[in-house]
Amino acid sequence: MQKAFIYVGGEIHPENITEHPKSDDLTIAADSGYHNATALGDRVQILVGDFDSIDRGREIDEKVEILTVPAEKDFTDTQLAVETAIKRGARDIVIIGGLSGRLDHTLSNLAILRELSEAQVYALITDGKNRVRYIRSTSTLISRSGYKYLSLIADDEKVKGVSVEGCKYPLDNATLTNRYQYAVSNEITGNCALVSVKKGGLYIVESAE
Question: Do 51 and 11 belong to one domain?
Fold first, then answer.
């Protein structure tokens, strides 16, 4: 299964980012995300965007494939990078960056996780301070890591049959709503946590202190 790493703009915390591509993974930068890839020491194969925010004074590796799009377009650079990854066979996507800075971009990036989940593409987004996944009517294991807190944010009006094992505050067949988000700031106590959902969608958010 092809795995892709997509680097987008926004502040990152390189010292906390453990996700790095292997030699056979696809690597794509969306506009100024190229700088984040460079900061992590990761090589970019494809650079996509309208290049309204990239530092043009920095040298770009001549081996990088550049896909230029108009500044006036219907999709964000991140969405275009994700679309490029899927077209090239990716079914597992790691997005790095995109959780700080402009709130509209952050919300748009989080919505991408839901879209990818519905397309049965495994995905997560991280900036080193937060790491986010999206699940719908399924279960997933979250390994204990450098992120202290684990929060569940309901995406639907009602998310039913939510269970959490391996955490300080377990849940058993609970119902979460998007109006009253109470499953926040939990902590993994074992080697991993098991999060299960019978009906509905959840954002699983890991946060550092």
Answer: yes
Is the pTM of the predicted complex or chain greater than 0.85? yes
What is the number of structural domains in the chain?
A: 2
Q: Of 128, 163, 193, which residue constitutes the final position of a domain?
A: 128
pLDDT digit string (tens) for the chain, length 209 residues? 799 999 999 999 999 899 999 999 999 999 889 999 999 999 999 999 877 666 555 667 778 888 887 766 667 889 999 999 999 999 999 999 999 878 888 999 999 999 999 999 999 999 999 999 999 999 999 999 889 999 999 999 999 999 999 999 999 999 999 988 889 999 999 999 999 999 999 999 999 97
Bin 20: left if φ > 0, else alpha if -120 < ψ < 50, else beta.
Answer: beta
Instruction: Residue 103: give the domain boundaries.
Output: 2-128
* 208: CB partners within 8 A, 6+ apart: 13, 16, 128, 129, 130, 146, 147, 148, 149
